[in-house]
Design a protein that fits this description.
By secondary structure, the chain is α+β, with helices and mostly antiparallel strands. Helix content is 50%, strand content 14%. It has three domains: 79 residues, TATA-Binding Protein (2-Layer Sandwich); 117 residues, Endonuclease III, domain 1; 47 residues, Helix-hairpin-Helix base-excision DNA repair enzymes (C-terminal) (Endonuclease Iii, domain 2), CATH 1.10.1670. The strands form two sheets. It has a six-stranded antiparallel sheet, with no helix packed on it. A two-stranded antiparallel sheet has the order 7-8. β4 and β5 form a beta hairpin.
Length: 290
């Protein structure tokens, strides 16, 4: 891959196994919004617009410098992982071969642990549209304004700002019962009782236990946080869609989530989390088992 600066945009040539809809609309991140010129988001307090030319295999990152790209975005988009090899390895399984072909442009983003922690606390028993709306409201109310191309965007709130938030304000943002979870978790992080950044450095099993110390984080949410922001590719989040597809194709009858995760670990090994992404997208779009 070669990154070239054109004005205030970086063009990354030779990006393969990437398709914007698969990356940004697969349920792993909630701040990317599709527009006429690509997908735009606030990430790490920066506004970025990303678009991808499938034919030329060029990823275009607007409002980005070469230093930004090499120092942040290259890792964020997981561009150093060989997804062609990942898909080849997973495709020895006939079910995965079909799922991979369906979501061929999927990549797991390396997101900020703090933002991902709160985002997936909000995600519990929620749908993607509503999750995005709540995060937008929280950011507009408790984040910092960033103006780009004449439009206002907002950074994700800091732990301190959410820890100090009034219950009524969180309710007005649509958090509901999750407002208490958000406030308690933010307070834990703000006071340094538990750090999502330190958890990121732990091995999977230990990290999985530690992240559940945060209020509102159970087994599935913990795996989402570990997969999407802590580099734990073996994490296998099991939601209703993944449970259905695993039982439908691999098991044949309902089983506990713990057993599903055990089967996935044996079936997919170190790529379990990546396999989950392909399976989730495939199952949700095709409505497998519904």
């Amino acid at each position: 891959m070669e990154a070239v600066l054109y004005g205030k945009a970086v063009h990354v040539h030779g990006v393969t196994d990437f398709f914007s809809d698969h990356v940004f609309d697969c349920g792993q991140a909630f701040r990317w919004k599709q527009g006429e010129k690509g997908y735009t988001a606030v990430v790490d307090s920066k506004v970025i617009r990303a678009s991808y030319d499938t034919e030329k295999q060029i990823l275009v990152l607007e409002n980005c410098s070469l230093d930004d790209y090499h120092g942040f975005w290259r890792n964020y988009f997981d561009l150093d992982r060989d997804y062609g090899q990942v898909k080849k390895d997973l495709s020895s399984d006939p079910v995965m071969k079909e799922a991979v072909a369906y979501g061929w442009g999927m990549r797991v983003l390396n997101q900020d642990p703090w933002e991902t922690l709160i985002s997936f606390i909000i995600s519990a028993n929620n749908n993607i549209t509503r999750i995005k709306g709540i995060i937008d409201k929280l950011s507009a109310r408790f984040g910092k304004e960033i103006v780009w191309e004449g439009k206002s965007y907002y950074s994700f709130p800091t732990p301190e700002s959410l820890a100090a938030a009034d219950d009524s304000a969180l309710k007005e943002c649509g958090c509901g019962y999750r407002g208490r979870y958000i406030k308690n978790t933010a307070d834990m992080v703000a006071r340094g009782l538990v750090s999502p950044y330190e958890i990121r450095e732990l091995p999977y099993e230990e990290a999985h236990k530690e992240v559940q110390k945060f209020t509102g984080v159970g087994d599935k949410v913990a795996d989402c946080i570990l997969l999407y922001s802590m580099g734990k590719a073996e994490a296998f989040p099991v939601d209703v869609w993944v449970k259905r597809v695993m039982e439908y194709f691999y098991i044949g009858h309902p089983v506990p989530i713990k057993e599903i995760k055990s089967i996935a670990a044996k079936q997919f090994g170190r790529y379990a989390g990546l396999a989950q992404q392909y399976l989730f997208y495939y199952a949700r779009e095709k409505k497998i088992g519904k």
